[in-house]
């Protein structure tokens, strides 16, 4: 069926049509069978990638906003009706769709591990089912990027880290939400301007090589740029020759100072960044410009950050490796039914088995305040430690105030500081202990017996 012109004005990020067809198919089938009792679904990651010792929860704010606004527009309903796939009864039910269920989740910025639910939806079965694809989409991406960014923050704790990844991101929403996720994990800012307008992520930026190339000389380019943008002057040095460029920057620094403009920094974007940084630092210091910072960018990730740590570089711009998580581009995550009409449900597929029922995760800490181990259990089974899943929505309404990005960022900082030392060092192969409580194991056996072949 061809595109409906009226749908061109629909925001894809807010549309309930941004889903898999099988969600709508199941919605219709549940209605036909009268299966509208309460269901429970968990979002979790089945297993950690070999290159990830922990993950950082992100995306809850966008999930809540989506649930609060989730409804079908008249244009969307007309289009669905026109496909002929669904009955008038289903279209009428979709017209009244509102999320009226409960949501429990780990707060954004919480460290978590495999098989631990970071979000639980409790709602009528058709309603909870229809939300699956978009909830996975929102939680997976920001969690993936925040977890990648956290590794860089741990690798370069004393450095300024900036998101430069919009141009290589997989689409507009990905670029915007990557900036948010990186800031949550501890980055200092982003080159993406809309991230500041939407989320308050500080926007940062210098110049491109094209600006230098467009002028007759680097001196002319540097002076023009500084006079046009006098507040935060950072000059790009590697368009032609780094040493010549930094000498030009040193030469014009007193000219600019006489005009009340301070040279704040210089940026390197190619070549042997460590060697160039040492050269630039030496020349700047000899000229009395010790306060001028050196920034570097160009194909960096946590491995190169570790290698560049001894170099006199104050900050890094991280692009492609951040916004596409190049070393591991997707998490094995899922949104699965764990209870229906009061009965525990459990998937037993090979390699994809799930834990049934409504669950809670408890976290213990050692005497130094470091994470010591988690326990996954059923709701109501008391355990030592801090319960990680907290109420977010009840009957579709917020419980208190949802923590904002600044609070999530502060939580992420606190959580990363409390990681066991092997995880802080990104030690490969080290696994954090997560135990399954006897009560949960017993519930799994009960669920298995209920669906035994007969």
Shape: globular
Query: What is the level 1 CATH name of the largest domain?
Result: Alpha Beta
| Cα-to-Cα separation, first versus last residue | 44 Å
Name the CATH homologous superfamily of the largest domain: nicotinate phosphoribosyltransferase
Percent of residues in helical segments? 25-40%
Enzyme class: ligase
Pathway: Cofactor biosynthesis; NAD(+) biosynthesis; nicotinate D-ribonucleotide from nicotinate: step 1/1
Domain Nicotinate/nicotinamide phosphoribosyltransferase: 161-339
EC number: 6.3.4.21
Short description:
It catalyses: 5-phospho-alpha-D-ribose 1-diphosphate + nicotinate + ATP + H2O = nicotinate beta-D-ribonucleotide + ADP + phosphate + diphosphate. This protein is an alpha/beta fold.
Task: Provide structural commentary.
The chain is of the alpha/beta class and 454 residues long. It folds into 2 domains: 261 residues, nicotinate phosphoribosyltransferase, CATH 3.20.140; 118 residues, TIM Barrel. Helices cover 40% and strands 19% of the residues. The protein has 17 helices and 19 strands. The strands form 4 sheets. It has a 7-stranded antiparallel beta sheet with strand order 13-12-1-5-3-17-18. Strands 7-6-11-10-9-8 form a 6-stranded parallel beta sheet. β8, α11 and β9 form a beta-alpha-beta unit. The longest helix has 24 residues. The protein is globular and about 80 Å long. The protein starts with 20 loop residues before the first helix and ends with a helix. The model has no long low-confidence stretch (mean pLDDT 96).
